[in-house]
C-alpha cells in the first residue's frame, strides 16, 4: 500500500492515501479512502496489488525450492509493477 501511495502521480492523493495507512486500522482506512475519495484509482490499485501478490508467491516458491532461481527471476522480470495514474 505504501509503494502504491508513493507512486501515484497525483501528489495530493498519494499523501492522503499514505496517511490513511498509518497506525491501527490501516487496511480499512486505505480501502475507505480509495472507495470514497479516489474511486478512479481502484483499477490501478487492484492491478498493482495483484502483480505484487503474484511476485510474492513466486518469491516464496523460489525460497522453498519448488521453483528454481532462474525461473523466479524471469517471472519477476516479466511481471513488473503496472503503470500508475
Supply database-style keywords.
85 residues, mainly alpha, elongated, 5 helices
Give an account of the 3D structure.
With 85 residues, the protein is mainly α. It has helices at residues 2-7, 11-20, 26-37, 42-63, 69-78. The protein has five helices and no strands. It is elongated, with a radius of gyration of 15 Å.
Q: What is the structure about, briefly put?
A:
The chain has about 80 residues and is mainly alpha-helical.
List the helices and strands and how they pair.
Blueprint: H1 2-7, H2 11-20, H3 26-37, H4 42-63, H5 69-78
Mean of pLDDT = 94
- Structurally, the number of domains stands at 1
Q: With helices defined by DSSP (H or I, 4 residues minimum), what is the helix count? A: 5
What is the percentage of strand-forming residues? under 5%
Question: What would you report as the Rg, rounded to the nearest angstrom?
Answer: 15 Å
Query: Quick one: biggest sheet?
Result: none
Shape: elongated
Terminal residue distance: 15 Å
Derived structural class:
mainly alpha
Summarize the amount of helix as a percent range. over 70%
How many E strands? 0
| Low-confidence runs of at least 5 consecutive residues | none
Q: What string gives the helices and strands in order?
A: HHHHH
User: What oligomeric state do these chains adopt?
Assistant: single chain
